[in-house]
Specification:
Layout lengths: L20 E8 L12 E8 L1 H6 E5 L5 E5 L19
């Protein structure tokens, strides 16, 4: 169960799902043993609070480990000015 922000430097408690973002990853379960030595996996939920999800995201690497990383910079477009056209007479 998710009860705090996944950012280890924040750890804000989760009270409401109104802010932040939930991430769901398929992770290996080291305590479970599958048939014929197969790796057992489970779905695990992570939450980043509103402040942390502005600057960070959660990613899963090829070894199925989940880690926090900086969010890519967003390209902001310059505002478009609406210029009224001259009325033809």
């Amino acid at each position: 169960m998710v009860n705090h922000c996944a950012n280890p430097e924040c750890c804000k408690p989760l009270h409401y799902l109104r802010e932040g973002r939930i991430f769901v990853f398929d992770v290996p379960d080291p305590l479970a043993q599958g048939r014929a030595g197969k790796i057992v996996r489970r779905m695990e939920h992570f939450w980043l609070c509103g402040d942390c999800c502005e600057a960070f995201t959660l990613e899963q690497n090829s070894e199925k480990n989940v880690h926090i990383s900086p969010r890519p910079a967003r390209h902001r477009h310059a505002p478009v000015a609406i210029v009224p056209t001259a009325l033809a007479s």
